[in-house]
Amino acid sequence: MSFQPKREAKARGMTLLETMVAAALSIIILTAATALLLAGGRVVHNTEHVADSHDNARLAGETLLSAVRQAGAGMSEGLWMVSGGMPLRINPVFGGDGAGTGVLAATTTGNAPVTDGSDDLWLVVPDRNYLGRDCAPGAAMTVLKPGTGALEVNCVGTPTGTPPANPMLVASNMKSAALLTQTSVTSTPPTATVTYQESGVTGFSNAPHKGGFQKGDLVYPVRLLHFFIGTHAGTGRKALMRAEGTPGSDASGRPFMDMGDPVVVQDFVEDFQVTFGVDATNTGDPARYDFQHGLKPDYTPGLRSVRISVVATGRAPRRDNQNQSVLSEDLPLAVENHTPPAGPADGYFRSLFSRRAELPNLAAASL
């Protein structure tokens, strides 16, 4: 019996055609995977941008609403202040219309009239802690003797803490109030004396018809807050800004003006609109309020509500699959009586926050 050795299989490589086919398939697969990855990244980018714009609009709107709900405590029948050397009764909530002129013209930092159609809003807001501390900056004090001029109050002990740079006080009978520019508080236990710049104005008080401040009036600190749209120096984009105010005539002839540099409340907010609801016939029915654009500072009976609207974007424009910011729906929004000028789509998705808030402190029935 004979045995023959087993033949070994010959080694065989890929032909040129097979190599070209494999390379082509690999390129197709890699191209598809890359396109899918880029498209997924673009979807994530656009989704984050939309969420970012929603957050910016909501945070700006909620900040405004929080301040609005605090405004005007103890001032339901107006706030007396000194303007041009004469007593003037004003609203603790008022604002300009970006489409208005004169007193209704909106103003921005430096009190220069705005040109982009956005509104502004002034609020007189009490210190949140005025009922929670005793004889300290931010605490409420009670008037002990009626009359005008320096106030004698029940401050037990020595005032503690550092007062603000430009301390503003309100003396209120919880209906009408008077705005005071504090100059000093001198403690002589068990009382203290509050002096203020307006004390030299004849008859100035929270109730001129009664001849002066009355025993039992509360004296507490307030802030004059000015909200508006301005340009954030760090980004070059529009933002919701806030400045502290002080009595003084602004560029539109209103009784408050910005005291210093504003702070950024919320970035990437490009429009701010506010309308004021007035219950002129005292019906108490919110459905019958008369809403108007802009409200003069002069006292307006029946001011009961405001509607806040803000438009915000994200940090970067949205992109399509070709990395172009050409999404046709990404255009400025028309809100209230402000219609932005027509222009090409810029890729920025706009989010609108609009909510109506009642002014509980200006409804005397709620006291």
From TrEMBL:
GO terms for biological process: type IV pilus assembly. The keyword Protein transport does not apply. Residues 315-344 are annotated as: Disordered. It holds the Pfam family PilW. Keywords: Membrane, Transmembrane, Transmembrane helix. InterPro entries: N_methyl_site, PilW. It comes from the Bacteria. The chain crosses the membrane at residues 21-40. The keyword 4Fe-4S does not apply. Coiled coil: none annotated. This is Prepilin-type cleavage/methylation domain-containing protein. It comes from Corallococcus aberystwythensis. The lineage of its organism: Bacteria, Pseudomonadati, Myxococcota, Myxococcia, Myxococcales.
